[in-house]
Amino acid sequence: MKSQPATVRIAAGQGFWGDWLEAPYRQVTGGPVDYLMMDYLAEVTMSILQKQKSRDASLGYARDFIPLMERILPIVVERGIKITANAGGVNPRACAEAVAETARRLRLGGKLRIGVVMGDDLLGRLDGLLARGHELRNLDTGRPLSDVRDRVVSANAYLGAWPVVDALRGGADVVVTGRVTDTGLTLAPMIHAFGWQPDAWDLLAAGTVAGHTIECGAQSSGGNCLVDWERIPDLANVGYPIVDAAPDGTFEIFKHPGTGGRISVAGVTEQLVYEMGNPTEYITPDCIADFTTIRLQQKGKDRVRVSGVQGRPATDKLKVSVAYFYGYKAVGTLVYAWPDAYKKAQAADRILRQRLADLGLTFEAVLTEFVGADATHGPLARAATPLDELPEVQLRIGVRSPDKAAVERFTWEIAPLILNGPPSVTGFAGGRPKPEEIVAYWPALLDKRMVEPCVEVVEV
After folding, report:
1. H helix count then E strand count, the chain
2. Which of 248, 294, 361, 387 is an S-S bond match for 342, by CB 3.0 to 4.6 Å?
3. Rounded to the nearest 5°, which phi and psi values hold at 449?
4. How far apart are CA 106 and CA 70, in angstroms?
5. Is residue 1 over pLDDT 60?
6. pTM passes above 0.85
7. For residue 434, which phi and psi values (nearest 5 degrees)?
């Protein structure tokens, strides 16, 4: 019987698709860790990957994951570090095959096992689910999915930690998944290392809190931090957070020595309340965590202890993230210089809107922002700032419509304002904006029994 480790260290390597590519390398070389967790997926990411896969069946995953693996695989194999990543997107098998090919090219054959977690992709099953009475009603509006079924581009259930645990128990060194929850990528190594049971709700809740703390990468180690942000040291060399977890569910957040950033109670608290609704019910497929029970304690420089987390049984539902085509949009910008920058931008906005009306164009929405005046804080900024003294203001105006032709014509009406509108325009070097497809988000719930995760483990 395998002995239980005293602690397990899980390092955050990516907090979103497009995060700092140096972070994973620094995490596996900066000090001892047992796992590298990399979170790639957001709701809009799934729809982007699905569109890529529809054009090329071999795509649909985070492709920058592969050159990253080429860089760090020899290191993680040598040091016995395991990887959990949802970089598989809507095509985890293709992603795993690309990792395997990379490993073979690095002559790591026989030294690496790759686990693949599938079963979250419901796009091909939607019609059958709807026919069986699963309406997948929008959690915000209550509308049934049938209202937009013909425009759906992706549909994925949020799987939890247990399929990842199965892959680790099967001997996987690298686990590639589709839409597994952000927290599940950290919780799974803790379940696997400590042998936690499926109904150990307090422990599962603690692992969920650990996952939530590091899922956004450096956001809990000094990045994007409001508290005393000017004094956060050396963000150019920021250290990403690491969970040092114990079998009893307590854990500490730290970072590698010699790295920049800061691990503090205030910073960890900021991350904990990120994406927070009801703090007593942080619902995941694995459990419900009560965030009001979390206790934080500064244990020294750049180390925060987390304890006291309590949990409750998981629900019988899985969240489903659906993306569907909604229409078209375009956004254009012009920058106006002092004097009277704000007044000039306002005048240009009025002129453009009048011209669109004169052309008989109608839009579902027209949104104007005056960047430098009110784009962030709205009317509050106008009330607090001497707007007539602003040195420059960017007019940013966007339109949305189901009619692509209307959006296309809007894009032709921006540039003429350079010479036939208010004076002192600059900042149009990007050229005429282009219409873009809009992908809208549709959150829903589905009976857990309707989703069957599939786990495969293959040796390179």
Report:
1. 13, 19
2. 387
3. -65, -15
4. 8
5. no
6. yes
7. -115, 145
* Ramachandran quadrant class, 250 (left: phi over 0; alpha: psi -120 to 50; beta: rest): beta
Q: How far, in Å, CA of 66 to CA of 73, rounded?
A: 10
Looking at per-residue confidence, does 389 or 26 come out higher? 26
Residues of the chain within CATH 3.30.70.100 domain(s) are: 322-441
pLDDT tens across 64-116, in order?
999 999 999 999 999 999 999 999 999 999 999 999 999 999 999 999 999 99
Residue 375 has pLDDT above 80, yes or no: no
Token pair of 168 as six digits: 């680790």
d(CA 179, CA 187): 15
HSE, CB side, 13 Å, CA atoms: give it for residue 310.
Answer: 5
> How far is Cα 326 from Cα 197, in angstroms, rounded to an integer?
43
Quick count: other Cβ atoms within 10 Å of Cβ 164?
31
Helices 201-214 + 265-272 axis angle, to 10: 100
**What is the per-residue pLDDT for 377?**
74
How far apart CA 432 and CA 386 sit, in angstroms, is 31
Longest dimension (CA), the chain: 80
CATH topology of domain 322-441: Alpha-Beta Plaits (3.30.70)
